[in-house]
Amino acid sequence: DADVTQTPRNRITKTGKRIMLECSQTKGHDRMYWYRQDPGLGLRLIYYSFDVKDINKGEISDGYSVSRQAQAKFSLSLESAIPNQTALYFCATSDQVGSKDLTFGAGSRLTVL
Amino acid sequence: DAKTTQPPSMDCAEGRAANLPCNHSTISGNEYVYWYRQIHSQGPQYIIHGLKNNETNEMASLIITEDRKSSTLILPHATLRDTAVYYCIVRTGNKLVFGAGTILRVKS
Lengths: 113, 108
What we know:
The structure holds two protein chains of two kinds. Chain A has no helices and eleven strands. By secondary structure, chain A is an all-beta fold. The termini of chain A are far apart. Chain B is mainly β. In chain B, the strands form two sheets. Chain B has a five-stranded mixed beta sheet, with no helix packed on it. Chain B is globular. The model of chain B has no long low-confidence stretch (mean pLDDT 91). Chains A and B meet through β5, β9 and β10 of A and β4 of B.
């Protein structure tokens, strides 16, 4: 089983619909992140959470919200999806600042029509 | 925030060393340099990181200049499976900020 699991892996939806992308991890890490990737571009940070009671905005949080339901779960919501939110979304975890690595999920491809 | 500059693409012959450069001229003294790679549309994979000393692991070597304004990732014997986008990142505070990276194409 993957250390970081994202669901759904692919989703096609319509403008105005509410969408939730879920992320769960078995790494035991405190820190979790949501990134967005557009074609030909690097990853941009949407939100991050350093523990269950901590939520922080990243570079591009407008139009998104998150929920940290437990140490192992971090979900990303689009309350009213719009076409320019069509992208590949990645969840990642890490154990601490200065930790050597982020562990990424396999990605969730979202298409908003 | 420190920014990084990488060439958009590079080619490398299979079996040869791949040397990927990165400029980070505004890096602060306590900021680490990280390298990740992304194969096709998979999640990025950690490769190596360093502060000021050169580092080596089973995947690669990281050479950081003495003034820390640039670094080079070295894949000693590139294989076709090393074809990927390579990201050089300076850790800013509590998060990693990814740029566009370098597309490395390893050719037989």
